[in-house]
Write a structure and sequence with these properties.
Strand order of the largest sheet: 2-1-3-4
Helix content: 40-55%
Distance between the termini: 16 Å
Number of strands: 4
Bound molecules: FE2/S2 (inorganic) cluster
Largest sheet: 4 strands, mixed
Order of helices and strands: HHHHEHEEEH
Radius of gyration: 17 Å
Shape: elongated
């Protein structure tokens, strides 16, 4: 992911470490705790800081490679802070058949970023998803918390014009 939006230095990383310690302590003794811990960290911070991997691994008695492997396997996990608006574009079959490939190309060009990246001003993060359960209205995207169906490039431009890159729609 691009480093356009890098957080707030020392205070931010102290806060992150504190939150991570709290989350790990609350579920570490439960079996299969890794996924809940990763989801909880991301819900809390918006991403999973790479610095958190050793802490999580130690607490759950796993190797760093195991924790890192799970984070990189699942598209939902981020390793860098997201932009203020998270845009998720469905790249699964039904949407692909209904124009999602062209739509994705348009979105990348319009935002100037590729999937997995955040714009340099921190306004937008672009992420792929694989079916939003909205196949009847393909192609589908999610902007912030709102799902949009039958999105054409023109419709995307309208959606994006209606939100501010300085807004706080994401997560
Ligand atoms: S394939 Fe895109 S919403 Fe189901």
């Amino acid at each position: 992911m691009s480093a356009g939006h890098s957080g707030n230095g020392h205070a931010e990383s102290n806060r992150a470490a504190f939150e991570i310690d709290k989350i790990v302590a609350s579920v570490a003794d439960k079996p299969g705790a890794l996924m809940p811990v990763l989801h909880a960290v991301q819900d809390r911070l918006g991403y999973i800081p790479p610095d958190a991997v050793p802490t999580i691994a130690r607490a759950l008695n796993l190797s760093r490679a195991e924790v890192h492997g799970v984070i990189s396997f699942y598209h939902d996990f981020r390793s860098a802070p997201p932009g203020r608006n998270i845009i998720r574009v469905c790249r699964a079959e039904s949407c692909q058949a209904m124009g999602a490939i062209e739509l994705a190309a348009h979105i990348q060009k319009r935002l100037g970023i590729e999937f997995g990246q955040t714009s340099a001003d921190g306004g937008y993060t672009l992420e792929p998803v694989y079916c939003l359960g909205n196949c009847a209205c393909s192609p589908a995207i999610v902007v912030g918390l709102d799902i949009h169906g039958r999105v054409t490039p023109e419709r995307f431009d309208e959606i994006i014009s209606a939100i501010s890159p300085r807004g706080t729609e994401s997560r």
